[in-house]
Amino acid sequence: MSSLPPRASVIVRTKDSARTLGDALSLLRAQTVAAEILIVDSGSSDDTLAIAHREADRVIEIPAASFTFGRALNIGAAAARAPIHFALSSHAVPPDTRWIERSLAKYESAHVAGTSGAPTWPGTATPLTTTVHQSLDLALRHPHWGFSNTASSWRADVWRQLPFNEALPTCEDKEWALRVLAAGWTIAIDSKLAVGDAHRREYGLRHLYRRTRLEAEVIASLAPVPPATFAAFMREWQIDVPAVRALGRWRRRVSPVRFTELMARYRGHRALQDPTRATRS
Question: pLDDT tens digits, residue range 211-270?
Fold first, then answer.
C-alpha cells in the first residue's frame, strides 16, 4: 500500500458474500481512479474472508452480534485514508469502471456532502437524465428515494462531524442524509451512479417482505409519510413503470416482487400510524 493517501476509499460490508464479492472487488480494481479497498466482515463462515484477504487492502473483522449497518460503516470509515469514502454492498457491482471517477467529479461543488444513484425521478418511472441535488425538502417529500449505501460516497470530514447512526436496524443511509441535508449540505443523485437491486430479491419473497417492511417502519419514524390508505397503495401500484418490450409494463406491474414490496411498504407505514391494527410478520 502506498504511503500517499488515496483519492478514494471504498468500504465493503460482508457476511457470507463469497458468491458475489469477487465480481464486486474485480470491478473496483478496474476503476479509472485507483481506490483503497476496505472489507468490514461480520462473521463470515464461507470463503468470503479468503477472497477479502486476497483482493482488499485491509480486512476488519467484527463480531456478528455487534453488527449494525451504521456501525460497520463507521468502523470502515475510521480506518479509511482518503478524503472521500465510498460504500458498496458486497452483493452489488459498480455500474462501470468510471463509477468512482464520476462520483468524485460531483465534489467539485463545495455544497455536495455525498453522492448516490437512482434510475428515476422520485415518485415516478421517468428516467433520471440529469444530476439532482437532493435537498432536505425533497428528501422529506420522498423519504424512500435518494441516498443509499448500496452504492454511495461521502466527504470524510462531513462523516467525522455526522457519523452514521449505529442504533438503527436499517436505513442508516436515509437517516444520515436527513441530518446532513438539515445541516445545509446537498447530496448529488445521478442515474449513472446507480447499481442494480437484484440482491434484495435473492432470498425469496418472504425475506423481501420483511426487509422492505422494516425499512418502511424506520423511514416512517424518521420522516412524515402519507397516510397508509388503500387508495394510496393503488395510486402507487398504477404508477407507470418502464418496459423494454411489448406487455413488459403490465408484467412488471403484476409482478409478485413488486406487489410484495408495495404491500410491505404499505403495512410498514400503517404499523407506525396505527400500531394497534398492525402486527409484525
Answer: 778 888 898 889 887 666 666 665 666 665 554 444 455 445 557 777 677 777 777 777
Span 8-193 CATH architecture:
Alpha-Beta Complex (3.90)
Backbone angles phi, psi at 37, to 5 degrees: -115, 120
Alpha-carbon distances, residue 214 vs 25, 118, 211, 221, 281 (angstroms): 29, 21, 5, 11, 10
For residue 112, give the C-alpha cell. Answer: 455536495
For the stretch 102-145, pLDDT in tens is 999 999 999 999 999 999 998 787 899 999 999 999 999 999 99
272: Cα separation from own chain's centroid: 23
Amino acid found at 188: A
In whole angstroms, what is the distance from residue 172 CA to residue 71 CA?
A: 9
pLDDT digits over 145-188, tens only?
999 999 999 999 999 999 999 999 999 999 999 999 999 999 99
pTM for the whole structure? 0.85
Domain segments of the chain as ranges: 8-193, 203-273
Spatial distance between the Cα atoms of 59 and 38, rounded to a whole number of angstroms:
6
